[in-house]
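User: Sorry, what's this?
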Amino acid sequence: MPGHTSRGQQTISKEGMAALAFALTVAMMGVTGGLLIQGSGGLSDGGPIVTATTDPVDASNGPDGQWLRIGHESGDIIDVGNLTVEVSVPSENKRASIHGLPTDYLRQDDYDGNHLFTIGPHGVADAAEHNDTDRAWTAGEDIAVRIEPRRVDLEAGDEVRVTVVHDPTSKQLYEASVDVVDYAE
C-alpha cells in the first residue's frame, strides 16, 4: 500500500535528509582541506612570494631609453643571486635570460640567448648592480636592465615580455608584457 510502511522499514523526513547531506558535505570539505594542507607542506615551501610591477619602456636611444625596470612592490626579500630575469622582444624575435646578478659589468657570460642587453657597466642598475652591497631585492627597489639600442631598436607600440624566476625553487615570481612608448612624442 502506498504511504504505508511495513515493520522494519522507516523513512527519513526532508529535514533529516537535508541535515544528513549537510553533515556529509562538511565532512568531505574537512577531509579534502586536510589532504590539501598536508600535501602542500605550507605556503612558504613553494619559494618566495613577491608583488612586482614594470613601467613602460621608453623607446628613445638616450640615456634613459630602453631600460626595463622591474619594481619590487611587496613581499619577501630575495637574494638577486638566486634570480633569473628572462626577457623577450617578440617583434625582433629575440630572447635572453640574465643569471649572473648582481654585477657591475654585464658580460655575455652573465646571460644566455640572443645579444639583447647592453654589455658593460651601463647594462644593469639598481638591485641588479653588484655595488648594491646587500644583494637583496626588497620592496621599493628595482632590478633594471638595458636593452641594447644598437641591437634592438625598440619602437612605440612594441612589447617587451619579462619573467623573473627564483632559481632554487624554479618558481616563477613575476611575469608581464610591457608596452614600449615614446616619451619624446
